[in-house]
Design brief:
This protein is an alpha/beta fold.
Amino acid sequence: MEIAFRILGRTRVRVDGEFVADWGKPKARAVLAVLLLNVGKAISVNYIADWVWPERRPANLRATVHTAITSIRTALQRSGVRFTLRNEERSYRLDVDPSLIDLHVFRKLVGRARAIGGTDHEAACALVEEALALWGDEPLADLDSEPAARRRDHLVRGYYLSASHALLYGLSKLGDYARMLDHLDEIPPELDLEILLAKHRLTALYGLGRAHEALSCLVRIRRRIVNEIGDGSEADLNALHERLRVRHEQSPPVRTPGPRYLPHDVDEFVGREGLLSDLDALVPPRPVPRLICVDGQPGMGKTTLAVHWAHRVHQRFPDGCWFASHADGAEVVAGLLVAFGVPIEPIPSSSARIARLRELLATRRMLVVLDDVDGVEPVLPALSTSVVLVVSRARMSSLVLQHNARAFTVRPLAADEIAAWLTRRLGDRAVAAPDVIGRLAERTGGMPLVMQLIGEQVAAQPDRSLTDLLDPLTDGRTLLSLQDNGIRAQFERSYRALPAEQAHLFRLFGLHPSHEIPLPVVAALAGLPVEEARVLADSLVWKRLVDTVDGDRYRMHDLLREYAADRVAHDEPRAERDAAMTRLLGWFLHTINNADRMVYGYRYAVPMLPLPGGVRPSEFADEDEVARWIAREKASIVGVLRASPQPGYVWRIANGAGELFSRYGHYDEVVAMMTAAAEAARSDGDVLPEADTLSNLGHFHIKLHDYAAAERVLDQAQRLLGAQADPEALAVLLRNKADCLRGAHNVPRALQLLQEALDLAEGFDDTRSGILFRMGVACHQGGRLADAAVHLVQARLLRQSIGDYKGEADALVALALLARENGDDFSARTNCHEAIPRYVQAHFQPGQADARLVLAVIARDHADPDRALIYATEAVELSKGHDRELEARSHDLLGQLMWKAGEHDIAIEHLEDAYRAYRDIGDERAHSVAAQLDELVALSGPSLPSSRVEHTTTWCERGLVE
């Protein structure tokens, strides 16, 4: 089971396979650290305060801790682990599997090592090294309090140092003095005066024959002990040094080494610590014969890793190290014989040369690195007494199955590792532009060859700013076109080695705009049944040209995809390219239609094009599956639309997917998609689809509060429709134009448009229900409460009858606001509680947030501030990233509640967030919040106006907006 939480450093949570340190505010991270440190125990709010707020406790401690707990609960949900986080009588208890926490894993690994340390030093050392690898710079780094400092000191001395001593003792028993020094150099300098560490260092230095360094080390540490500690412990150190010196002088001379050739190591090797540790573990101080394979995508740094590791362990091979690259097996044998001084001319046959080399190596233990060597297997008998590292572009399964090789795959580097390397490489220019460095690091896709190319390109142009270089260096085609960069050559070697069927599929990957492709899409591109497509795609995985992720998904590095796109344009016949693109578009169109029918089966569907031959669209069991699919594939859908040369598919796919994107909160993608759809419909030459698409685009602009853009495209749509419009299309257009009319003074005109729309929508229940809903909200705003109730009840019943549970929830929240206006808070509360599970069923977070805001205001007015804080905090979390206006209202209300609770600093933070959100959408409430902030910051402490957070409704159907 993988670790999900780290506290031996900053408090980090694993999200989507990567540890995230900035998942919450500093105090929330600190609270989680305390909970993880006490997992399975109920800890009081006061105990938490002692650890997190040691100097000045918040005025409303319980509410502040609850806010942190809400943030923590969200982070834990994102991690995907099973947990419970309960509030037990002013205490909190986190229950989660301890094996998911790094500290508990550390203890378990060290315990297992101690249990076997007396009999198996090698295995025990490996366990302790695995444990120490979990250690960060400073345990509990997000906690700054006296209890945390005491616990931190206990962890360092009682856990870290104890484990280090155990490891160093085991390594000394194994005679692995180089690893001892490596670990000693990793121990923080402030612990240098630990006498046991000093003894371990002397032992390691003498073990490596470095007597002069050992004497210098003794003098330096002895002087520090006398000057800084003065406890007489230097006498023990002197005695140990004397014993080691005598033993060293009596040791026999070292055997003369054999042939040795390794390319130069890089000046600064980046990352790969886990893989290097795995390789180290396979080669003990007295190496035994071993066959190791390393594979990976082209440009991933396989050769650099092999050379670096060979330099790292070369001292374990006194009989020699040898490196051969881009050769065949016969050339490797000949090269080694020559290095041993054996003339090869008198030994003409390959078999005789292999036999002679085997004889030479029979009593030697060498390290032999074979990088991209053809014909490895015939040479292996000659190398059977050595450690052989084979580096290959493809997975070497035959060596694993037939020769018991251990195989490893070199994965992409982390973006932060590449950013750190670029910063060191480029110096002050990089320090001054961390954002640009971050984007450059992301563009490498974790590929070290690209990292080095970017670093060299920038370093070679010292007079150009990083910002000027950003665009060309983040364009894949530009990177591939740079002369002598090595990237294209690496790709070319792998591509040219593919059989025809694999090369064809590799090229088709270049037609897909995203670097991740699900298996059904691969099958559609190739026009194959899914299982046949899987076999063919998996063959590219073994060739390390694509990776598998999340089961049935394939990922191709961005630059490899650029290369594949170049190859499909040059090597694939035009007819096959066009057919593959049609299959791709057909798959998306019919899959989106299946998703739309699952969610909006009560509406008319987008008109379909025929399903291309060989295409099997995906189907969905329920709406949960649809929501997950849209979240995962939204970037691919938008990318396919932008890349498509077939407008008939573009506008159909966009109109089918638009409402699904909106339902699940992907608003930015909706506008981009529908804009492309409008252009496609225009070029397709059919007026009605163009007008419908523009009307839908206007609808989505309204949801994003861009009313000017909405009016512009709706006017275009109305001009296109003219007087001969389809009744439902015109009804939807009039409904959308009514949505653009804001403010109480526009209510009469809005109701007039809505009544015209309602007359046209006879027989179209979905459209009719939306119009009735808007009429209810408009009547409410215009003070016609009785009419509002009639319209909203009609809308609810109609939506209930067609199975539109999200629309029913909208009506329930609108009725709740109406009940509140009439002084019936009980009905308002009941309606909101009925609406929330319907929003959950529809995966509509803005609606869940809106209902909670109503509940928060009711709780506030009924003198229940704690419950109001809970609802408002939940509304902030639910609205985040979905709807800026709703975010603004949520922060606005939470800021007011925090101010009343005495949490003035937190209140100001939330009000500043509200101001920014209101300002971003051009809402006049930004001025009111700004004025309020000026007063608050001046500490005049006025009471906050409740008018800003009360729900004054408009008729925009997305949940309700003020």
